[in-house]
Each structure stands twice: as structure tokens, then as C-alpha cells.
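REVIEWER CHECKLIST
Item 1: Sequence provided? yes
Item 2: Single chain? yes
Item 3: Sequence as submitted:
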Amino acid sequence: MMDAEYIARLDRVSRVYYQGRVEVRAVDNLDLLIRPGEFSALSGPSGSGKTTILNMIGALDMPTSGTVYLEGRDLTRLGRGELSRLRRDRVGFVFQAYNLVPVLTAYENAEFVLALQNVPVQERRDRVMAVLEEVGMAGYVNRRPDELSGGQQQRIAIARAVVSDPAIVLADEPTANVDLEAANTILDLMEDLNARKGVTFLFSTHDRLVMDRARRLVKLRDGRLEDDNQAA
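Item 4: Structure as written out by the authors:
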């Protein structure tokens, strides 16, 4: 059941790992609400739980305890196939290392999710070319990732993330491997998609540039909420 009040919700969520016999609480009894249209960032030192939170919202990982909801659906109650379809259809991912398929062209990488969804070929082409135009990469459709700069690869990754109109885009350190100019260009692009199309973005970041541009900054430490600057 969808809930218009939020895109993602974590209720008393913990994620525990073990290093040998040592318990590591990557996320510790955390409550978090992400609303539609947010442009938000999770910040904190390494090991504070940022990536783990993104992975749980994106159904790549499950909590040890507590509940994770996406558009009102309790992810802990879904089967593997349902989770896979949910990731495919409702979540866009932008990774630090781009994660483009090296043997595919820029066009084919951007098209990948729509092909998995069995969208008709002409509709796929129309949607892919429109989003490549939006991210400034329409002139690079036949280039493979090794023929693109880091900033260009990240633009293709953003195109792939948004082309299927997901409920939320999860961006894990999206500016970490690009220079300052490319980082600003990428953030301009994401802000434009957020403002113009209402795309919800949630970042994890160490980058002060991203923190300054985010409209909401959630600070974490040792898997717990340290500060949240959202308006009351």
C-alpha cells in the first residue's frame, strides 16, 4: 500500500555484522523518514552507516531488526523476486564507481533498465534519447565507458538511474571520483531533475560540496542519528 507521506521509512532499524566474534552495529536503532521530492544527504565518518542505509532502502540489504518501508511496502516481508522487481522499477542507483557495463555503449547502458522491464523498443529509444539530452550526453551515444571521462560516465549513470522514473534515486558518494568542475556539473544536473521533475534524491557523502548543496543534511555517527537539519 502506497503512502503519499513518504518514499522511504526506517523504523527502529539496526544492521549488525560480525568481524570474527566482534559485533559491529553498522546501523543502530535508527528512525528515518524520506519524503517525496527531497534532495537530502547522509553524512558522517567512515563506518557511520551511510552506505548500509542506502543499501537497505534500495532492498540490496535487509535489517537485522526493525522495519524498512518503500512507498508503504514492508521490504522485510517481500520475497526475492518481489525485491528484485522493486529495485528494478522503483529505485535508481548511482554508484561511486559508476558501475557501467564496459561492453555496452552509453546508449545501451542508459537503456539497460528499460530493456529489463520489456519496454517496447521505440518507447525505449524515445525515453533514452530524451534523458541523454537532459544530461548533456546525446552526442556520445555510441561511446563505451572507457571512451568517456569520469564525469561523463557519471552522467550516463544518472541517465540510467532516472530513465525508468523511479520513486527515489540513491546516490552513494556520486562525486568521489570526479574533479570539482565535474562534481558541480553533476550536482547541477541532479538539482535540475529534482526541481523540474520532482525526482527524490538521497545521497551518502563525505564531500562538503554535496553537503552544502543538499537541502536536508542527516549527520550520522556509529550508526545513529547525530543531527538532522530538516525543518520542524
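Item 5: Key structural point noted by reviewer: The beta strands are 8-19, 22-34, 39-43, 65-70, 73-74, 91-94, 168-172, 201-205, 216-221, 224-228.
Item 6: Recommendation: ____
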